[in-house]
Amino acid sequence: MENCSVYIQDGKIEDVFSEKRFLQKHFDPSVRIFDVEGAFIVPGLIDTHIHGFAGFGTEDNSPEAIIEMSRTLAQFGVTAFNPTLYPSEPDTMIASIKAVVDAMGKESGARIMGLHLEGPFISPDRLGVQRPETLSSVHIELMERLWTASEGHIVNMTVAPEIKGMRELALYCIKKNIVLQAGHTNATYENMVEGMQAGILHSTHIFNAMSEMHHRNPGAAGAILIHPEMTCELIADGFHVHPDLIRLLVRDKPLDKIVLVTDSLKPTEQRTGNLIANGEEVIYHDGCFHRKKDDVIAGSALTMINGVKNLMSYGLPVENAVKFASMNPAQVMKYSRQGALIPGFDADVVVFDKYCNVLATIIKGSIKKNIL
């Protein structure tokens, strides 16, 4: 809607007005009115795959680090996020989980929605920079330990569909309402179909750390493209996925099935000090972080607002770019009353200008950043 106004009351969106209706409306004198002077007013951005930000990360095993992620993310238009854990030794992973749980409810910025576990039930053949000694075969008792430590706050989990025992794990997770996503996987096309039949219907950073498409075996990437019911994460930094391949994805995939994520690492937007991610030194070049010792891509330096900006530069209209970053993640993660500017929804709102500079971030009606 062009030339609209959003009315917020008691942490909820009360109404959305056209310009004509706004001019006809008589507000109580206590209502504060802000003129954003032609800037975009959009739903808050939701990052469902993020390891760290501004020098703070989930690997710190500290509630304070997660709270600082929350505070700084709000400055970049993020109103909700799923702190994402690397696979690690069970006791360390449990400590990381407990740190996130301890931070929940103490946020000063973006809301912590719950945990994304990127492993440990993933393929040693598609590690990326994950450490092989931290992986595990499917082990329901271990999964139960992780679930118990989370106090029921595991929202999504990356798994390799081809691993033995995955169907049993999938059925366990579905009963817990955990969104399963195929990633760090060497799955054949048949493995992916079997995974979908077991409820693995989302996927982690499409085209990265997964079996490629081949004309005799479409692999994981092909299965995601072929099956419209599959949703997928997209790292739109222009480096993890070529911009022309993003254009192909957007052309062939239903637009409600693509979820913008950052997969950002601890040093993203860090201003000083050594750059460390998952215990290893990284360097920034070619638009993302590389592990210093071998130059392997370690992860993204993307922010959600820059992801929106990049998608727009690739030819997407602003409404679709924002949809990938707000409505789609809310729907995939089953977050009710989030991701849209609809009366009755949570008042999570971002205002940005035509250059994608964030002018204001509002979380449940509370202004977290305002330079209007």
Number of domains: 1
Mean pLDDT: 94
Q: What is the total tally of β strands? A: 21
Largest sheet: 7 strands, parallel
Strand content: 15-25%
N/C terminus separation: 21 Å
Q: Which overall shape is indicated by the principal axes computed on the Cα atoms?
A: globular
Based on the coordinates given, report the CATH architecture: Alpha-Beta Barrel
Report what the structure shows.
- The protein is built from eleven helices and 21 strands.
- With 372 residues, it is α/β, with parallel strands linked by helices.
- It has one domain (43-339): Metal-dependent hydrolases (TIM Barrel), CATH 3.20.20.140.
- The strands form six sheets. Strands 4, 7, 8, 9, 10, 11 and 12 form a seven-stranded parallel β-sheet that branches. It has a four-stranded antiparallel β-sheet with strand order 3-19-20-21, with no helix packed on it.
- The two termini are 21 Å apart.
- 48% of the residues are buried.
- The model has no long low-confidence stretch (mean pLDDT 94).
Which features would summarize this protein structure in a list?
21 strands, alpha/beta, globular, 372 residues, TIM Barrel, single chain, 28% helix
